Amino acid sequence: MTLLKTERKQETKRPTLFVHGTYEKCNIPRKGELPVGFSLEDLQQDQIMVRKRLRGLNRFVPEQGLVSESELPTFHMENDHIYEERSVLVQSFEHYQKLKDHAPFSKLFPDHLDEILDDVRFGENMIVSGLDNTQICIGDIFEVQGETSSLRLQVSSPRLPCSYVDKKNGSPFGMKGIRRYTASHGLAGWFVRVLQSGTIEEGTRLVRVANPHPKWTLEYISKTLYAEVDRKHFIMCTAQWARSKEELEELCALPALGWYEWKAQAQLILDRWGRADVMVEPNKVIDSDSPLTVQGKHSAAAAVSLPIQLGRSSISFCVAQIVPCHLEKRFSHWIAIAIFGLAWLAVGMTVVLKDFPDEMRQDCSS
Fold first, then answer.
1. Which of 225, 247, 280, 338 is most buried, by CB atoms within 10 Å?
2. Which residues are registered as beta bridge partners of 92?
3. 339 φ, ψ to 5°?
């Protein structure tokens, strides 16, 4: 009896997550099901990453994740390949609070965060409290407190958010948005794999029973791969490495680390070690504490100059000068199209003026 009390006392000292809500996907139209002329970009804020709050006991199984009435898988699937390490997406109140406390995003969230339970913002399957991005680590294993369920979950990776996170939360796109801020700070939630089937409900407590890699927190791994990058990679939200090869090898060797977007990117950088497109000098990285600040000087201005011949004289006409790195990739494409349109217009005018007789050219100039 004394031994049982001792074990329970030790269990209460372990880091614990309190489950506030569980959610299933809603069957919203997919790209192929949309009306003619309607795109995913036309979806409204409340039509993106829609989740339905569940009551009572909810069952989780390996690979599939949450078993719900909708029968929509919670795992990430690509080319018929299931990424079982992404079976369940978890988000915490602590992350919501950090975003609310960050001045640019404070007005995007309700005064009372309990209201989030009926309108989750990151497409999560579970909202918990108790730990944050500085405490959750790769490989952490959680079990249901009191052994009332056989469920075992293992943390596999932070969530690398997509642009829908900006639209869902009403934040600006690009470097000033929630997507980029949460990606570089590990605040968009985390994925877990289901090691053993079991059930949970609101009010369940999940106790951490294993913490094999305390160094590799959600914040730390997000910083090393997606925050300590140059400006180009920061805007594109792509991985780069500014640390030692030994630490990169350590990251790649983590057995619990999820493959998609994390171990795959780390391994790619390791395989191409030394190449400029995957390496970045430490003094030329984005400041992870402030994603709008850049350490080091970067010049991304591009000018388009066209030589235009008017009669016997020749001049160089500067069509435009832009800094595309301040914009999203899609906006840069439109600006590039506009520039080339102006270029062709300038060339066309040159051809027309070249064929004008001298008398007509003089009349036009006067």
1. 225
2. 128
3. -65, -45
Q: Which helix (H) or strand (E) holds 251?
A: helix 245-252
Give per-residue pLDDT as tens, 287-304.
555 443 334 333 333 333
Chain Cα centroid distance, residue 220: 15
Instruction: Supply 40's token pair.
Output: 């995913």
Beta strands 152-158 and 58-61 are unpaired
CA–chain centroid gap for 147, Å, is 34
Q: What is the pLDDT of residue 347?
A: 67
| Tokens of residue 12, six digits | 């209460």
Residue of 174, 188, 9 whose CA lies nearest to 91: 188
Residues in Cβ contact with 53 at an 8 Å cutoff, skipping those fewer than 6 apart: 21, 22, 23, 117, 118
Report which DSSP code applies to 171. P
- Site of tokens 């289901």: 194
Mean pLDDT of 321-340: 56
> How far apart are the C-alpha atoms of 215 and 350, rounded to whole Å?
64
CA-to-CA distance for 110 and 170, rounded, in angstroms?
A: 13
The rounded distance, in Å, linking the Cα atoms of 216 and 118 is: 32
Pairing of strands 88-92, 126-129: parallel
CA angle 76, 77, 78 (to 5 degrees): 130
pTM beyond 0.90: no
Six-digit token pair at 228? Answer: 């300590």
- Is 176 exposed, middle or buried (CB count within 10 Å of its CB: 0-12, 13-18, 19+)? middle
Residue 130's pLDDT band, with cuts at 50, 70 and 90, is very high
One-letter amino acid for residue 148 of the chain:
T
Name the residue with higher pLDDT: 18 or 174: 18
